[in-house]
Amino acid sequence: MALEIPPEKKNATKLDTSLLPLNHSKILIPYIQAMAAAPFALEAVQMEKNGKAWNILEIGLGTGILNSFLHDVFSSMNITTIELEEGMYEIAKKYFGLVEDNYNKIIVGDGLLYLQKTAGQSKFDVIFIDACYNTVVEVMCPVEAFLMKENLKIIKEALTKNGIVVISVLTFEDDKLSEVLACGEFRRNKSRFAKKLKEIYEKFEFYSEPNIE
User: So which domain of life are we looking at (predicted)?
Assistant: First the structure.
């Protein structure tokens, strides 16, 4: 997501940024770039339009950068997003251009409870989890509920046969990473995954280097 400055205003000394249009096809934040690219690099979803509608679940809306990118760039995605805090949902709508329609549904509520209530009803090709604490703890993201084995089983059951989970991880303790996230495809063939990830970055015009160490 980026603000677009019209050519006639590029030399202006003052700008009201609230009036500038938002370009949702761009992502400037590195960790969101990585989250957006991962499902394509792992071939859980495809770049090409092949007539298939991909079902996406996003737990944790934030300001809606990932949500708006996927909705803006890929018309073949049915996106459901669960956001715990109504205030964050309102901020995304008011200041970050969040658009809701038949293909982009936002629900204010608990993501884990949503999965429990819809168990057996919905299957997703990709589940994004970007749910974090708002206080400083050893593992900021994801919240502990998404690390518990019984809840991971619920998440797994909500996936399609080739579906994947993409988790945002923020920790101040390096030794905690192994407890939080392990990508099977990455561990099996690191060089292949790295190559595909870089290809996706180039297609999306993400001008940063993916860090897969």
Answer: Eukaryota
